[in-house]
C-alpha cells in the first residue's frame, strides 16, 4: 500500500498548523514556502512513478471513514487527476512567493493568510485525489472556506461582497450536488460511495438526467460556465492576486474536472442527451466572455472574463466526446492555470506598484519596466493561443477534436480565438505601449523575488508549448477511458436510428 | 377486587435517572426554604451538577444492562432505546447549560421589583440573587426526561407541564432588558397555555375514540374502531398542534424569537437544546406509535409543516438584527430539517434509520446550540450582552479565538462538511431520500442555502468589518469557557469521526419505540 496521496494531503495540513503557531511572521512565510516546496518535490517524485498505461487509478489508498454511510477515505489518481495535482503543487509555491508582502497591506494576520494557503493546498490535492464520491464532495465544499476567508479578509475594497457572493454561489451548487450524491447512493444501493462501485450503477435514463443535472449545475457554477459565471469577475477582481491565481487556476478546474470524471462516467446516457445544451452554453460562454472582456476597464476583471471564455473551450472539449478534444481540454486546464496565473500575478505586481486596477491609469509601462511588460506579453500571448506557447496546443486540440464530432460549434468557437487577440493585445497596447503615463514614470521593474515568481511560469508556458507530449501521454489513456462510455452510448443511439 | 386497591408496580430502577433529578429538585426547594441565604448558592451548584451527572451515569448503566422491551410503571413510561439515548443527550446538555447558569450576572436580583424602581436598586446593591433558578431548572429537566418517555397521553401532558411551567418562570428572570424578559415570559406562558389546552383537548378526543390514553392501545384501535373518525382526526390534529408548538414549527413558531430574545441566555441555551430534543422525542412517539397506522393522513400535512417551517425560519432569519432572535429563527429552520426525518417513514428498517438519523441530528445540533449561546453570553456591552448584530463587527480582530469558535458554530449550523451539522443534515436527508421524500430534501437543501446566507453574514461582520471604537468587551468566566471548549470539541469530533455516535444512535433506534 502506498501512502503518497495521504502524505501529500497531510503535509500541508500539518504545515498550516505549524505556520499558525509560529510567532515570527518571516519564519511563518519561510516555513510556508518550505512546506509547499516539499509538497512539490513529493508530487514530482510520485508523478515520475506513474505508469500511463497501468491501472486506471494508481497510488490508491482506501480506509473506511463512516461505515454507516458507506463513506471511505479513498484516494487514487489517474492521468487527469495527476496533472491537476501537479498544477496545484507547482502553483502554490509560486503563489506563496508572489504573496510575500500580500497580507501586510491588510490589517489581518500574515500567519493566518499563509496557513489558509496551505490548508487550501491540502484540499485542492484532496479534491482531485478523492476516489470516493462523498469524500470528493467533502473537499469540494470544505475548500470554499479557506478561499472565502482569503478573499474576505485580504481582498480589495469590495471584498466582503465578493467573498459572500463566491461562497453562496458555490454553496448553492454544492447543496444541489449533495441531493444528487445522496440519490445516487440510494439508487445504486451498493452500500458504498467508492467511485468504482458507483460507475454504471444507474441504468434508468430518466434518473440519470436528474442526477446529471444535480452534479452538472454544481460544476457549471464552479467552472464557471455561462450563465453561472457572474460571481467570478467579482471574486477574482477583489481577491488578492495570489488567491485569484489559485481560484481561477485550480479551484475552477474542479468544475471541469468534475464534469469529465463524474458527469461523463457516472451518467453517460444523460451526458449524451445533454451534450447539445452544454455545447451551446460553452460556445455562448466563449464568445460572450471574450466580448465582455474587451469592454472591461479593470485589469483583473478583464483577466477574469478571458477565463470565462477559456472555460467555454474546456467544457466544449469535455463534451465534444472525442479523444482529441477531451485530452485537449484536460491539457487546457493545466495550461490555463499557468498562463492565467502568470497574467494575474504580473498584473498584481503592476497594480501593487501603482495602486490602481484600472487600465486607463497606465500607459507606456514597457519603457520603465521592460521585464514586467515582456513577461506580461508572453503570458498574454499564451492566453490568446499563439503557436509555440502552451495554450495553442490545447486550444488547437479542442477545436480539431470538436470539429470531428460537432463541426458547427467548433467553427463558431474559433471566433473566440480572434476575439482573444483583441482583448489581450488591446490591453497590452493601452497599458504597456505608447507614451509613458505620468503616474507610472517612477515605478520599478520586477525585483529579484518577483523574477523568481515569473520565471518558472514563463518557462513552463514555453516548454509545454513545444513539448506537451509527456503530459499528453499521461492524459490520453485516462481521457479515452473517461469518454469511452459516452461514445458507447452514442454508437448505440446511432445504431438504433439506423434501423 | 371490590374495595381493594392494588398498589401499582413501579420499576424504580428503570425510572432512577428521572427520580434522581426530581429528588434533587425537591431537595433544592427545601434548601431554599431552610438554608441561610449566603449558603444557598454554594449548596445548589454542586447539588444540581451532581444530580445531573448521577442521572447520566444511571442512564448509561441502564443502557449497558439491557434495554427493556416493555413499558414501565403500568405502561405509563417507556424506557426504551430511543428514550435512553434522548435522556443521555438531555442530561449532558442540561449539565452544560447549568455550567452557564453558574456564571454570575445572568439573573435578576429581585424578580418582584419593578424595573427601574428604588426597590430594584436596593436589591442590586445588596447583591441579592434568585437561587431558585436551580430547583426550577431541575424540575424543567425532569419534565424533559419524562416527556419523550411518556407512554400514555396523560403522563405526557403532566410531563409537558412539569417541563414548561418552570421555563415560563425562568424566562422572566433576565438581569438586563427586564421588560423584554417579562414580556417574553408572559407571551410564552399565554401561548404555551393555549398549546397545552390543545394537547389536553386532543387527548380527551382520542380517549373518546379509542377508550384509552395509552399510546399503544390508541395505535391498536386505529383499524378496529369504526364510525368515530371525526374524533380521531380532530384529536390527532389537536395533539399535533400542542407538540408542534413546543418544537416551534411553523405556523406555531411565533413565540420562539421573542422568548429566545427575552430569556436569560443560559435559559435560552437550555430551551433551545433540551426542550427541542425532548419535544422531538415526544412528537415521534405520538406520531409513530399512537398514530403510526394513520400515516397516510398525517404525512401530507407534516410535509407542508416541514416545508413551511424550513422556509419561514430561513427567510425571516435574514432580516434579524438581534443575535438571539437570529439564532431563534435558525432554530426554527433546524426544526424544519428535523421534521423531514419525522416523515421519512416506511418499513421497520427505514424507520430505524430515520430515527437514528434524527437522534444523531439532535445531539449534533444540541451541542452546537449550547456552544453558540455560550459565546453570546461572553460578548458584553456596558448594558449586558451585546445583542445587536452591528456590535459584533470586527470581533475577529479584537478577539480572534472567540470569533473563530463562533464562526465555526455558525458553519456547523450551515452544514459545512467536517462539522457535526453536516453529518446530521446528511443523515436526515439520506433517510428522507430512501423513504421517497426527495422533493422535501430539495426544499431542505434550498433552505439550507438561504440559511447559509445569514450565518455567513455574521462571519462577514466579525471578520471582514472593522471594529467599532467602543466595541464590546469579551468576558469569559470559567464555566462558560468550559462549555465553549466542550461544544467545540463535540462539533469537531462529530464532524470528523461521527461513527461512534452514529453506532450509538443506530443501536438505540434498532428496536424502535416499545409499544
TrEMBL record, chain A:
NADH:ubiquinone oxidoreductase chain 4 N-terminal domain span: 67-125
UniProt domain NADH:quinone oxidoreductase/Mrp antiporter transmembrane: residue ranges: 130-417
Parts of the chain that traverse the membrane: 6-22, 31-51, 71-98, 110-128, 134-154, 166-188, 208-228, 235-251, 271-295, 302-323, 329-351, 371-394, 406-428, 449-467
Membrane topology listed for this record: Multi-pass membrane protein
Organism: Microtetraspora glauca
Entry EC no(s): 1.6.5.9
Record GO terms (molecular function): NADH dehydrogenase (quinone) (non-electrogenic) activity
Keyword set includes Cell membrane: no
Identification of the protein by name: NADH-quinone oxidoreductase subunit M
Cited PANTHER family: NADH-UBIQUINONE OXIDOREDUCTASE CHAIN 4
Keyword Transferase attached: no
Cellular location(s): Endomembrane system; Membrane
Protein keywords: Membrane, NAD, Oxidoreductase, Translocase, Transmembrane, Transmembrane helix
UniProtKB/TrEMBL annotation, chain B:
Presence of the UniProt keyword Lyase in the record: no
Keywords associated with the record: Cell membrane, Membrane, NAD, Quinone, Translocase, Transmembrane, Transmembrane helix, Transport
Main location as per UniProt: membrane
Keyword Disulfide bond: no
InterPro entries with a match to the protein in the record: NADH-Q_OxRdtase_suN/2 (IPR010096), ND/Mrp_TM (IPR001750)
Reaction equations catalysed: a quinone + NADH + 5 H(+)(in) = a quinol + NAD(+) + 4 H(+)(out)
Domain NADH:quinone oxidoreductase/Mrp antiporter transmembrane as annotated: residue spans: 150-449
Location within or outside the cell: Cell membrane; Endomembrane system; Membrane
Bilayer disposition of the protein: Multi-pass membrane protein
Pfam family, one: Proton_antipo_M
Residue intervals passing through the bilayer: 12-35, 47-64, 84-101, 156-174, 186-210, 230-255, 267-288, 300-319, 326-346, 358-379, 400-420, 440-464, 476-497
EC number: 7.1.1.-
Subunit structure: NDH-1 is composed of 14 different subunits. Subunits NuoA, H, J, K, L, M, N constitute the membrane sector of the complex.
Family note: Belongs to the complex I subunit 2 family.
Function: NDH-1 shuttles electrons from NADH, via FMN and iron-sulfur (Fe-S) centers, to quinones in the respiratory chain. The immediate electron acceptor for the enzyme in this species is believed to be a menaquinone. Couples the redox reaction to proton translocation (for every two electrons transferred, four hydrogen ions are translocated across the cytoplasmic membrane), and thus conserves the redox energy in a proton gradient.
Protein name: NADH-quinone oxidoreductase subunit N
Organism: Microtetraspora glauca
Amino acid at each position: 500500500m502506498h501512502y503518497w496521496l495521504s502524505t501529500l494531503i497531510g503535509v500541508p495540513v500539518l504545515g498550516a498548523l505549524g505556520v499558525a503557531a509560529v510567532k515570527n511572521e518571516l519564519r511563518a512565510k519561510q516555513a510556508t514556502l518550505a512546506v509547499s516546496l516539499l509538497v512539490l518535490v513529493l508530487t514530482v517524485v510520485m508523478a515520475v512513478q506513474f505508469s500511463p498505461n497501468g491501472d486506471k487509478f494508481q497510488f490508491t489508498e482506501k480506509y473506511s471513514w463512516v461505515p454507516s454511510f458507506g463513506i471511505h477515505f479513498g484516494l487514487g489518481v489517474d492521468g487527469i487527476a495527476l496533472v491537476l495535482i501537479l498544477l496545484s503543487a507547482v502553483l502554490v509555491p509560486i503563489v506563496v512567493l508572489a504573496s510575500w508582502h500580500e497580507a501586510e497591506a491588510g490589517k489581518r494576520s500574515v500567519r493566518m493568510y499563509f496557513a489558509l494557503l496551505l490548508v487550501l493546498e491540502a484540499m485542492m490535492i484532496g479534491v482531485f485525489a478523492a476516489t470516493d464520491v462523498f469524500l470528493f464532495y467533502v473537499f469540494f465544499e470544505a475548500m470554499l472556506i479557506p478561499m472565502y476567508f482569503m478573499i474576505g479578509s485580504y481582498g480589495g475594497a469590495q471584498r466582503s461582497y465578493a467573498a459572500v457572493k463566491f461562497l453562496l454561489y458555490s454553496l448553492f451548487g454544492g447543496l444541489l450536488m449533495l441531493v444528487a450524491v445522496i440519490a445516487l447512493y440510494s439508487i445504486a444501493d451498493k452500500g458504498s460511495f467508492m467511485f468504482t462501485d458507483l460507475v454504471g450503477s444507474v441504468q434508468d435514463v430518466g434518473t440519470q438526467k436528474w442526477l446529471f443535472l444535480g452534479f452538472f449545475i454544481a460544476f457549471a457554477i464552479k467552472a464557471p460556465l455561462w450563465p453561472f459565471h457572474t460571481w467570478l469577475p467579482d471574486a477574482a477582481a477583489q481577491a488578492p492576486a495570489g488567491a485569484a491565481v489559485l481560484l481561477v487556476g485550480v479551484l475552477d478546474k474542479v468544475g471541469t474536472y468534475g464534469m469529465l470524471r463524474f458527469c461523463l462516467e457516472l451518467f453517460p446516457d444523460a451526458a449524451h442527451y445533454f451534450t447539445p445544451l452544454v455545447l451551446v452554453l460553452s460556445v455562448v460562454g466563449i464568445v460572450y466572455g471574450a466580448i465582455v472582456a474587451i469592454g472591461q476597464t479593470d485589469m483583473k476583471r478583464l483577466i477574469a472574463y478571458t477565463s470565462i471564455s477559456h472555460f467555454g473551450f474546456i467544457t466544449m472539449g469535455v463534451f465534444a466526446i472525442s479523444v482529441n478534444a477531451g485530452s485537449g481540454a484536460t491539457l487546457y486546464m493545466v495550461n490555463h492555470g499557468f498562463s492565467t496565473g502568470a497574467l494575474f500575478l504580473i498584473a498584481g505586481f503592476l497594480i501593487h506598484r501603482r495602486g490602481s486596477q484600472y487600465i486607463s491609469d497606465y500607459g507606456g509601462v514597457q519603457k520603465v519596466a521592460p521585464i514586467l511588460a515582456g513577461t506580461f506579453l508572453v503570458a498574454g500571448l499564451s492566453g490568446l493561443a499563439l503557436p509555440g506557447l502552451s495554450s495553442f496546443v490545447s486550444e488547437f486540440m479542442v477545436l480539431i477534436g470538436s470539429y470531428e464530432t460537432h463541426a458547427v460549434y467548433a467553427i463558431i468557437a474559433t471566433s473566440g480565438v480572434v476575439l482573444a487577440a483583441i482583448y489581450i493585445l488591446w490591453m497590452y497596447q493601452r497599458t504597456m505601449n505608447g507614451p509613458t503615463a505620468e503616474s507610472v514614470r517612477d515605478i520599478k521593474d520586477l525585483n529579484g523575488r518577483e523574477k523568481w515568481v515569473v520565471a518558472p511560469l514563463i518557462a513552463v508556458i514555453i516548454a509545454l508549448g513545444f513539448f506537451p507530449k509527456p503530459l499528453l501521454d499521461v492524459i490520453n489513456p485516462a481521457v479515452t477511458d473517461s469518454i469511452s462510455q459516452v461514445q458507447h452510448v452514442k454508437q448505440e443511439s446511432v445504431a438504433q436510428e439506423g434501423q | 377486587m371490590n374495595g381493594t386497591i392494588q398498589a401499582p408496580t413501579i420499576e424504580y430502577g428503570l425510572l432512577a435517572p428521572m427520580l434522581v433529578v426530581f429528588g434533587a429538585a425537591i431537595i433544592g426547594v427545601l434548601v431554599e426554604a431552610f438554608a441561610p441565604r449566603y449558603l444557598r448558592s454554594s449548596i445548589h451548584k454542586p447539588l444540581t451538577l451532581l444530580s445531573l451527572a448521577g442521572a447520566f451515569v444511571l442512564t448509561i448503566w441502564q443502557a449497558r444492562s439491557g434495554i427493556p422491551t416493555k413499558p414501565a410503571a403500568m405502561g405509563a413510561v417507556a424506557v426504551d432505546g430511543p428514550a435512553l439515548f434522548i435522556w443521555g443527550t438531555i442530561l449532558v446538555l442540561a449539565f452544560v447549560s447549568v455550567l452557564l447558569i453558574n456564571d454570575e450576572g445572568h439573573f435578576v436580583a429581585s424578580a418582584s421589583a419593578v424595573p427601574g424602581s428604588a426597590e430594584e436598586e436596593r436589591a442590586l446593591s445588596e447583591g441579592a440573587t434568585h437561587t431558585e433558578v436551580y430547583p426550577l431548572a431541575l424540575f424543567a429537566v425532569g419534565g424533559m426526561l419524562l416527556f419523550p418517555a411518556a407512554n400514555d397521553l396523560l403522563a405526557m401532558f403532566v410531563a409537558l407541564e412539569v417541563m414548561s411551567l418552570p421555563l415560563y418562570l425562568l424566562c422572566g428572570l433576565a438581569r438586563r432588558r427586564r421588560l423584554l424578559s417579562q414580556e417574553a415570559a408572559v407571551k410564552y406562558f399565554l401561548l404555551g397555555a393555549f398549546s397545552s389546552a390543545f394537547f389536553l383537548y386532543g387527548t380527551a378526543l382520542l380517549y373518546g375514540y379509542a377508550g384509552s390514553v395509552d399510546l399503544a392501545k390508541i395505535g391498536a384501535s386505529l383499524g378496529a374502531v369504526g364510525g368515530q373518525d371525526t374524533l380521531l382526526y380532530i384529536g390527532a390534529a389537536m395533539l399535533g398542534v400542542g407538540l408542534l408548538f413546543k418544537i416551534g414549527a411553523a405556523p406555531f413558531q411565533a413565540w420562539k424569537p421573542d422568548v429566545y430574545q427575552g430569556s436569560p441566555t443560559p435559559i435560552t441555551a437550555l430551551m433551545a437544546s433540551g426542550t427541542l430534543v425532548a419535544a422531538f422525542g415526544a412528537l415521534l412517539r405520538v406520531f409513530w406509535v399512537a398514530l403510526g397506522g394513520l400515516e397516510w393522513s398525517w404525512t401530507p400535512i407534516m410535509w407542508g409543516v416541514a416545508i413551511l417551517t424550513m422556509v419561514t425560519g430561513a427567510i425571516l432569519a435574514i432580516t434579524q438584527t438581534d443575535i438571539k432572535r437570529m439564532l431563534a429563527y435558525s432554530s426554527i429552520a433546524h426544526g424544519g430539517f428535523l421534521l423531514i426525518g419525522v416523515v421519512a417513514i416506511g418499513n421497520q428498517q427505514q424507520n430505524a434509520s430515520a430515527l437514528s438519523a434524527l437522534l444523531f441530528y439532535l445531539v449534533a445540533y444540541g451541542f452546537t446550540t449550547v456552544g453558540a449561546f455560550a459565546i453570546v453570553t461572553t460578548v458584553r456591552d456596558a448594558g449586558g450582552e451585546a445583542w445587536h448584530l452591528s456590535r459584533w463587527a470586527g470581533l475577529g480582530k479584537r478577539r480572534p479565538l472567540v470569533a473563530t469558535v463562533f464562526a465555526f458554530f455558525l458553519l456547523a449550523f450551515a452544514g459545512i462538511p467536517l462539522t457535526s451539522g453536516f453529518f446530521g443534515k446528511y443523515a436526515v436527508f439520506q433517510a428522507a431520500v430512501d423513504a421517497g421524500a426527495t422533493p422535501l430534501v430539495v426544499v431542505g437543501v434550498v433552505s439550507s442555502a438561504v440559511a447559509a446566507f445569514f450565518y455567513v453574514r455574521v462571519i462577514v461582520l466579525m471578520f471582514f468589518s472593522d471594529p467599532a471604537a467602543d466595541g464590546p468587551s469579551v468576558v469569559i468566566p470559567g464555566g462558560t469557557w468550559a462549555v465553549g471548549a466542550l461544544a467545540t470539541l463535540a462539533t469537531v469530533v462529530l464532524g470528523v469521526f461521527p461513527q461512534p455516535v452514529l453506532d450509538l444512535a443506530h443501536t438505540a433506534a434498532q428496536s424502535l419505540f416499545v409499544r
